[in-house]
Every structure is written in C-alpha cells, then in structure tokens.
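Reopening this one. Same input as before:
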Amino acid sequence: MPFFGVPAATITGVSRIARVAGAAVVPAVTRQLPGAGGYVVTFYPAWADYPSDDEAADTRRVNEFIEQRVLEMPEQYLWVHKRFKTRPPGAPPLYE
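Same output, byte for byte:
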C-alpha cells in the first residue's frame, strides 16, 4: 500500500478489527508539547462508512490519514522507523 507515494508494507488490522468487533474507528493523534511540557491528544470524528467492503480502500484511508497528520507536524513523526524496509520484488532497498 503506498505511503507518501512509495510502496510500503501496511497492516490491514484496523479494518479487520473494526469489522469483526462492529466498532467505530475514532482516530486519535498525540502531539508532544515543547520543552517536555507534556502531550495533547486530539480525537477526530469517527469515520463514516468504515470499514467498507474493500479492505484495500480501508487501508489506503488509514495511510492517507497518517500522511495528513505527518504533513501537519513532520517534526513529530518517528522518522527513524524504517517504514519502507519491506520492498516489492525487484525494487532497490532504501536503507543500507
């Protein structure tokens, strides 16, 4: 599933768990305050029409939400996480 336009291994668990549990998905994001001043948690509205009947579309929706949050506060993203470690067959590695 693409993440910022780059193929990346992506779990489908959010869609699967929501479907099995009949649960609403309420996205939440934690922002660290400057100077070790604590954290602020922002809860977003529950996603309508989620999960859908298309697990791939549901997974893209999760990635797109994360991409939007990263663009809002890139300094808070865990960039050391090797998000693109798993590559499609034949694709060159991004980490050496």
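So the earlier flakiness isn't reproducible anymore. For the record, The helical segments are 13-21, 55-72.
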